[in-house]
Amino acid sequence: MATTNDLKNGMVLKLDNDQLWSVVEFQHVKPGKGPAFVRTKLKNVLSGKIVDKTFNAGVKVETATVDRRDMQFSYMDGEYFVFMDMQTYDQLHVSRSAVGDAANFLVEGFTATVATHEGEVLYVELPAAVELTIAETEPGVQGDRSTGGTKPATLETGHQIQVPLFITTGEKIKVDTRTSDYLGRVNS
């Protein structure tokens, strides 16, 4: 248990029938009239839904212990992604639903943060940007654009993104894992 005065960004709370909510933002407000309160923006750990919630100052809230560990993605086992803890070498089977959109950018050997609560995997978090190889893309045709021009490209993971016309098959690029945006070439 903690009070609303102890809230910090990233803290995980157990609210509304044991649902887990991560604190995205919080603000202590002391109006001229009336009691102080805490305005928060909470993100549901499982669904990703964001809600605004207001608490009276000093109210007790239940906190949840979320264990975040850096683990290396090893291989696919049917519908499960297998991650290995680099300290203990324990393997963890994670379902596709828990991996979510991170599956679009996972390649064997990548390190990701795996968050668990009471032994249950909540989510898998990748770094903001990863380096991947272009598996296939059409050659860019000079002159078939008005400005900037992009074309579809398939990454080594099978995920498709938009890249500039000058990118070729086999090139290594940097991709934003949150938006699937092309960020630039990787100089080898």
From TrEMBL:
CDD domains: S1_EF-P_repeat_1, S1_EF-P_repeat_2. Pathway: Protein biosynthesis; polypeptide chain elongation. InterPro entries: Elong-fact-P_C, NA-bd_OB-fold, Rib_uL2_dom2, Transl_elong_fac_P/YeiP, Transl_elong_KOW-like, Transl_elong_P/YeiP_cen, Transl_elong_P/YeiP_CS, Transl_elongation_fac_P. The keyword Transmembrane does not apply. Residues 130-185 form the Elongation factor P C-terminal domain. The keyword Ribonucleoprotein does not apply. GO terms for molecular function: translation elongation factor activity. It is found in: Cytoplasm. Pfam families: EFP, EFP_N, Elong-fact-P_C. Signal peptide: none annotated. Gene3D superfamilies: 2.30.30.30, Nucleic acid-binding proteins (2.40.50.140). Keywords: Cytoplasm, Elongation factor, Protein biosynthesis. Residues 68-122 form the Translation elongation factor P/YeiP central domain. Its main location: cytoplasm. Belongs to the elongation factor P family. HAMAP family: EF_P (MF_00141). Involved in peptide bond synthesis. Stimulates efficient translation and peptide-bond synthesis on native or reconstituted 70S ribosomes in vitro. Probably functions indirectly by altering the affinity of the ribosome for aminoacyl-tRNA, thus increasing their reactivity as acceptors for peptidyl transferase. This is Elongation factor P. The gene is efp.
